[in-house]
User: Fold General transcription factor II-I repeat domain-containing protein 2A from Trichonephila clavipes.
Amino acid sequence: MFTLSRNTMKDRILKLAENVTDQQKNDINSAPFISLCLDESIDITESARLAVFARYCVGNIIKEELIAITSLLTTTKGTDICTAVRNSLAEKEIDLKRIVSVTTDGAPNMVGKKNGFISLFKTDVGHSILECHCIIHQQALCAKSGLTSLDNVITLVTKIVNLLSSQALNKRKFDALLDEVNSVYNGLIMYNSVRWLSRGNVHQRFVDFLEEIRLFLQNESKIEQYPQVMDIMWLLKLMFFTDICQHFNELNIKLQGSNKTVIVMMDLIRAFEAKLYVFRNDIITKNYKYFPNLKQHIKDLDAQEKRNEEKVIDDLISIMDSLIKEFSAIFSQFKEFSETFKFIMYPDVISFDKLNLSQFDWLEIEELEMQLIDFQSSSIWIPKFIETRKKLELIEA
Assistant:
């Protein structure tokens, strides 16, 4: 066995990195079309970073690759992002004319009509592109917008969590109390403002510790500052918020991961929209089958306290109506292209009249209608479409 010098190891690592970069460059440049996804955010050092991802086909394989992470040194305007993306693609020798779609977080600097990145980038590309707002971002936005009437619940929970977790003395006292009562958990979860849906986990732990939190506030003579933790109406809304956030978290997890196509993601969104109606009916009928925290809390109420249930139900139904409305409005763009997206998996059955090709006229598809008739009438091609569909289903699985 030979020991390699550090210089030899360094050279070897550099050559491997260069080889990986060259492979990625060759794969991207062999793809007929490319889709981009951009994510601009602030890192822990308060620096603005822009990540550029690409999805493309290499033979029969769909690849998703991070092709660049670049720093935005001064401002994060649409012009800055456009310049950074243009330079990153130039380094990979990517032909801009092969870009068919771009997904962003929907921020004004990305989608502004005049100086947004999309508008500027279209000029560089030289043809129309399908611009998409990230489905996961939209799902989180729906939850945030639809639950604004519960901001008072969110604010108070955050304030109490900060009181018990961010102040060293209070944290030690609360940890000692948890040890004394043999708690399963060792502390509360801090709220992360970047990930709005993290509130679901924060509130679930808060609910699990509700008795301990009340006891701590009483011991520290602070219960009068937070009377809501003893208020039935407020607690009912807390339980509802905790339960509905768990449903949103489950959807969010399903939407994450690689090899997710827009078809499957929109199927998940449509399914969740239908579930919202079920959740609404569950509240109306007072079964609370899908709201375990709310159900348990109501079960523990005495007869006099249960009178508050009637008062809060109308508010909860109104919140569910707001969520349903938000989902219907925010995902309207994807619904507009739903039949077009399905064409990827069902070219043998989708009618040409149902296709929205407004963003693809630059592809010279004048003969597509006639070609589609030939394909859909061919005993040779139909089995091939079915076989391809099975392969796509395996990818999604």
